[in-house]
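User: Hi! I have a protein structure encoded as tokens and I'd like to know what sequence might fold into it. I'm fairly new to this, so please keep things simple.
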């Protein structure tokens, strides 16, 4: 129920000079994509022993013809790249399938800004009700499990996670996603 399936529909041909999305196979990344921050390529180059250094070596461009559709997982390490061509366009539409039961999930939700300093500061200081107003699941929502609480606590170490732990639903009845 808590899965999202993202899509990118390309309206124009995308070459390596037109800033294609780059992806890395999950056979290399495993679950590491769930970690809190993703260093830039330059940060990784500065530290060749960093865990993701091999990811940048293994990434592949999604160079496609107009009309192509990229379907991937949010656990797939992916990133945009710079336009290198002096002229040209890359036109695409990004959309996400999600369950109607998960109104807090979405493509244009605050999740896209989750790692910005401003969002980290807001989430850490906000009340549970204030977080709900920006699409955070409420305490007691079935979304909250030991795993999701641990993930949110890792991403926002200054956030009071107590209200979510206190109202943890009975997960014995829930099916894993």
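Assistant: Happy to help. Inverse folding works backwards from shape to sequence: for each of the 177 positions I chose a residue that suits the local structure. Here it is:
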């Amino acid at each position: 129920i808590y899965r999202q399936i993202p899509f990118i529909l390309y309206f124009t041909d995308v070459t390596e000079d037109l800033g294609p999305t780059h992806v890395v196979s999950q056979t290399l990344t495993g679950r590491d994509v769930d970690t809190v921050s993703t260093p830039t390529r330059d940060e990784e180059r500065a530290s060749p022993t960093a865990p993701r250094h091999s990811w940048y070596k293994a990434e592949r461009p999604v160079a496609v013809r107009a009309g192509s559709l990229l379907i991937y997982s949010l656990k797939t390490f992916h990133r945009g790249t710079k336009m290198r061509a002096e002229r040209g366009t890359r036109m695409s539409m990004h959309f996400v399938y999600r369950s109607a039961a998960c109104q807090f999930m979405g493509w244009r939700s605050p999740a896209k800004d989750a790692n910005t300093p401003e969002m980290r500061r807001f989430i850490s200081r906000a009340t549970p009700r204030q977080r709900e107003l920006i699409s955070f699941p409420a305490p007691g929502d079935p979304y909250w499990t030991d795993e999701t609480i641990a993930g949110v606590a890792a991403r926002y170490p200054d956030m009071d996670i107590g209200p979510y732990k206190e109202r943890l639903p009975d997960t014995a009845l829930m099916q894993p996603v």
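A useful reference point when you look it over: The mean pLDDT is 81. Feel free to ask if any position seems puzzling.
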